[in-house]
Write the structure tokens for this entry.
Amino acid sequence: MNEMTSSVIRARNPRTGQVDYTCPAFPASGLDALIAGLRAAQPGWVTAGIDGRATVLRAFCTALAARREDLLDALLADTGRLHESRIEADAAGVWVDCWVEVAPRSLDTLPRDTGLAGITGTAGFRPYPVVGVIGPWNFPLALGLMDAIPALVAGCAVILKPSEVTPRFVDVLQAALDEVPALAAIFRVVRGDGALGAAIVDQVDMVCFTGSTRTGRLVARRAAERFIPCFTELGGKDPALVLEGADIDRATSALATGATLGAGQQCYSIERIYVPRSLHDGFVAQLAAKVARLRPNWPDPAQGHIGPITFLPQAEILRRHLDDAIERGARIVTGGAIETHGGGLWCQPTVLTDVDHSMLIMREESFGPFLPVMAYDSLDEAVALANDSHYGLSAAVFGPEEAAQAVARRLDAGGVSINDAGLAPLFIGSPLVPEKTAFNHSGLGGSRTGADSIRRFVRKQAILSNPATGPSPWWFSL
Ligand code: NAD
């Protein structure tokens, strides 16, 4: 895990294909001092209390909001997208407000009766001193702040390392942090590659990792060796099930977005669709007609729907999945090409039929705007197909409410949207929805949603106090 990090990050612009940005990488040799500084500052952060921390975090959100245009420019250059970047840019303030509101209840320390001999139990919550947050390139800002914010509200210091693929937005984040020294002392953002990420895992007291299952396994293994908690949010191959009686117009519209938002470069993207055989042909025709209307966001990033392939090696995976599917008998109904505009690559949203589970496109995470549709003959078969995956992040079910609810409870997926696709990502990191965990290889550890998910960031104590003056009945008689 202790490899040398490269000293310079060179970032390719996904809209032009040009390497047009360089910045120094944070040297792994500097981590000792950085983390020692965080450890020294963290007790003062705890003492500030939730209200004090809220004031500082809100000042940061104000400083970030004042730089919204710069942030959007940086995220656009990092990811090639504007629509999704706007969603990211506006999330921080909402998360701070939500967590500040629910944290006092989730971390309440009122004494309660234990039911045993008048003994009271009081919860103690001791924040992990230094939390490491390591993020991916697909939503580079949101997927870092979504864990960093509740950790900071809980009283932890945080070191955040976003993906080296998307480093530009950090300049803007850092400028906002520089305006709020009280936060800059306990929240550090460092840029570097996987070796720096590994070095962070070697030093922090707990880890929140978002990224691929392959890297997540390495991180979880190292965290286990160090006996530190590790929360991993990993890849997905989300299924959508269309039931008899579903509103097909609604289902096709929802799926045309749910499978292509972020150009499909979303862990929560719908990547496979199962439809009753009797509805299959009509469903495919409607879906393909809608998907064919989706346009690349080129040349104007404010127009169109589909952004470029952000990370160049992803294009190879998309080609391999398409070629493999076609070789094995799949038929492309619409899309199927990776286009070049400027110097960037745009994958056409692609509807496929005649697919089966021998194909990579039905089994491995594609991370692209693919909508393979497979017919099924019975509900049991559909559920078995949906669950035939080593992933289990989220899913969608379309159909009459009662039937859809029943199917949802049979799916191996942490978040299930009913009569919509992609509700779960709207709420990741939110305290306002029920808790959910990833199933299978899509992640490990406690929920990132729900009011109590902030408890991931604290060590829990049970402080038990006995008010009796005489001997306790369980003592030896001496
Ligand atoms: P990745 O695993 O390649 O990299 C993620 C981060 O890990 C990067 O910051 C990278 O520098 C760092 N890293 C690499 N090696 C490391 C190591 N040995 N130790 C510690 N850190 C290391 O993932 P990616 O390609 O950036 O992101 C795409 C993946 O992320 C997809 O699989 C996607 O499904 C997943 N993802 C999951 C969620 C979720 O909430 N479940 C959200 C977004 C993305």
Observations:
- The CA atoms of residues 3 and 391 lie 29 Å apart.
- Residues 1-5 have pLDDT under 50 and may be disordered.
